[in-house]
Amino acid sequence: MSVVDSLSQIRPVWISRVSHQLARGAVLRESFLAQLNRFFDAVIQAVASGDPSWMDPILNEWVEARTQTELSLNEASLYPILSEILQITQEVLKETNQADGLEIWGAMLPIFSRAYEQSARREIEMRVVHVQRELQLAQFSLERLDRSKSDFISIAAHELKTPLTLIEGYAAMIRDMLPKEQESMGQVLVKGIDNGTKRLREIIDDMIDVSLIDNNLLTLTFQPLWLNRLLSTLREELKEIVAQRKQNLIMHNFEGCEELTFGDSERIYQALRNLLTNAIKYTPDGGQVTVDGRKLPGFIEIIIEDTGIGIDPDDHAVIFEKFGRLGNVSLHSSGKTKFKGGGPGLGLPITKGLIEAHGGTIWVESDGYDEVKCPGTTFHVLLPMRKEPPDDKIAKLFSPLTDGKQR
Ligand code: ADP
Q1: Which residues, given as ranges, of the chain have pLDDT below 50?
Q2: pLDDT, position 231
Q3: Domain end position, chosen among 170, 185, 214
Q4: Domain check: are 280 and 402 in the same one?
Q5: Could you tell me which of 31, 3, 6, 29 has the C-alpha nearest to residue 18?
Q6: Which of 61, 70, 208, 402 is a plausible cystine mate for 75, CB 3.0–4.6 Å?
Q7: CA nearest neighbour of 264 among 175, 342, 355, 195
Q8: Residue 403 has what pLDDT?
Q9: What is the distance in A from the centroid of ligand 1 to the CA of 223?
């Protein structure tokens, strides 16, 4: 008798044994019987043709029948089921006393070995697809979250602007009504309102900037600029607060800073001011802030180093995200330049957006966060040196400044 005939002979016993062992309950067994018959048909085809790939369709079907829950829990691998079927096959061969039992066993082994391999491969493929889908979903929901954050910022900023303008207007009217000769209580109170509204306007402007950057709506006006001039204006602006904080602000005249480059000077000034006010804010009284830099092929690097509290390496990416402020929010001091006077956490994302809009890049270096040892922080800004603006119109306007040629 051929192996195929012997297999056909053990078929009823095999089907009954496997179905009873693997499918508990009559209803389940009923539907499983059809599957087992197909499995056995495939085994016979594989043995008859010597091609174990006959098993692939039924195995793939079994693997693909796994539910999403089983996939996410990494459960229900086909491996234990195939092992049990193989074991039952061996028992059935013994029990039915097949004369060619060994021969049948010999024919079955390569088929099962292929079945293990095929089901494992298909299971991995399924898992990869599942994980990819999960990642995609996570990315979609993150993007949606980011979008609603961005929409909220933009709406809130515009909604806050109107009442703020009203407060500013009324404060100005009260100021005008107060006697100017001597400083009255009224003047002190109005000054308090002015300080508050000024800070609120800065926050609203930051919110608008961050939503412009988020929505790719930021427009730059490229003009000729000299970094050393921007930096000395900045030093003048910060002189008072540096003195208040008893800090030492050192600005080096580094190579390339006196060279002309094209950029949006207001925006570059804003970015550098954010970095410098942060350096002052997160450095204790008496500390030092240094501005240095170097010329690189096609770029200029500006380095802002402080002797402050530092930033944990794990947070080096977080601080460039919207609202990526660190530490306990309730402990933040409210002043813009007071020690650790944290703001809404928009300064660095705006700075990054502004620098990247110029084709530059920004990164931070710090050994860690330690308010006692103060390991310090260094921000690096790499800006392209532009001998002409990217925009044609402005290029025409400023061409005599750059190369003297008429365009
Ligand atoms: P904030 O308005 O809170 O200052 P930023 O976006 O400017 O927001 O900065 C985000 C966070 O990065 C800050 O809350 C602070 O924790 C940290 N940070 C920024 N600059 C420095 C620095 N020079 N030294 C230490 N920490 C800093």
Answers
A1: 333, 395, 400-407
A2: 97
A3: 214
A4: yes
A5: 29
A6: 70
A7: 355
A8: 47
A9: 29
Atom 19, ligand 1: residue with shortest CA distance: 278
Return d(Cα 109, Cα 30) in angstroms, integer. Answer: 28
The verdict on pTM exceeding 0.85 is no
pLDDT digits (tens, 9 = 90+) for 158-217: 889 999 999 999 999 998 988 877 778 888 899 999 999 998 999 899 988 998 898 888
94 plus 184 within the same structural domain: no
Among 282, 306, 365, name the best residue to mutate to test ligand 1's pocket (greatest count of ligand atoms within 8 A of Cβ). 282
Q: End of a domain among 195, 214, 233?
A: 214
CA–centroid distance, residue 281 to ligand 1 (Å): 8
Distance 342 CA to ligand 1 centre (A): 7
* Torsion-angle region of 25 (φ positive above 0: left; ψ -120 to 50: alpha; else: beta): left
* pLDDT score, position 404: 41
Pick the atom of ligand 1 nearest to 369's CA.
Answer: 25
Domain-located, residue 146: no
- Please report the atom of ligand 1 found closest to the CA of residue 343: 2
Shared domain check, 175 and 192:
yes
Same domain for 227 and 339, yes or no, is yes
Residue located nearest, by CA, to atom 11 of ligand 1:
325
Lining residues, ligand 1, CB within 6 Å: 274, 278-279, 282, 306, 308-311, 319, 324-327, 342-348, 377
Same domain, 54 and 132: yes
Are 195 and 316 part of one and the same domain?
no
pLDDT of the residue at 311: 96
State residue 245 phi and psi, 5-degree precision.
Answer: -90, 5
> How many angstroms does the Cα of residue 278 sit away from the middle of ligand 1?
6
Residue 402: the pLDDT is: 47
| Res 405: pLDDT | 41
- Whether residues 359 and 248 share a domain: the answer is yes
- Taking alpha carbons only, the member of 200, 203, 222, 199 closest to residue 211 is 203
The domain containing residue 101 runs over which residues? 3-141
Judge if 253 and 353 occupy the same domain: yes
Closest atom of ligand 1 to 376 CA is: 24
DSSP 277-313: HHHHHTS-TT-EEEEEEEEETTEEEEEEEE-SS---G
Gap from CA of 316 to ligand 1 centroid (Å): 10
Our count of domains for the chain comes to: 3
What pLDDT is stored for residue 76 in this prediction? 61
Within-domain flag for 147: no
Report the pLDDT value the prediction gives residue 194, as an integer from 0 to 100: 92
